Automatic annotation (TrEMBL):
This is MarR family transcriptional regulator. SUPFAM superfamilies: Winged helix' DNA-binding domain. It comes from the Bacteria. It comes from Lactobacillus rodentium. The lineage of its organism: Bacteria, Bacillati, Bacillota, Bacilli, Lactobacillales.
Length: 136
């Protein structure tokens, strides 16, 4: 088995997301995070921690023109903390992204039964768990 096949699959999925939704990987991760939290407002520091990136990296990503149009960013009243959540354009983009991810899943797994998909997911989870133990 060519272990780098995982990388090829990742690259193709990222390319599809970019072509169909005009989103890069950092924007995709940001939108999926807010989708998973029902678009709850969060501080930049907490979001950086949740995404496992530095605050400066997150700040750079958020301040990109293509990303900034997807979020509402405001400074807290009594501190320098910035909080953000998705605006309507961001919420619309999440819907588009979710639809595309469902399409991709159908393309990849259409021929498989539910048990096969569940088994595949379990195997991927085991691989990730093993890798997490090996890489700190």
């Amino acid at each position: 088995m060519d272990i780098l096949t995982f990388n090829l699959v990742e690259e193709k999925i990222k390319k599809l997301i970019y072509q169909k939704c005009s989103l890069n990987l950092s924007q995709t991760r940001l939108l999926l995070y807010f989708d998973s939290t029902q678009n709850k407002k969060i501080s930049m520091g907490s979001l950086a921690s949740a995404l496992n990136i530095s605050l400066s990296t997150l700040s750079r990503q958020i301040n990109q023109k293509q990303t900034l149009v997807l979020v509402d960013l405001e400074r807290a009243k009594y501190s320098s903390t910035k909080v953000l959540c998705l605006n309507q354009k961001g919420l619309d983009k999440v819907e588009q992204l979710r639809g595309l991810l469902n399409e991709i899943e159908l393309i990849l797994l259409d021929e498989w039964g539910k048990e096969e998909v569940l088994h595949f997911q379990n195997q991927l989870d085991k691989i990730l768990s093993t890798l997490n133990e090996q890489v700190s």
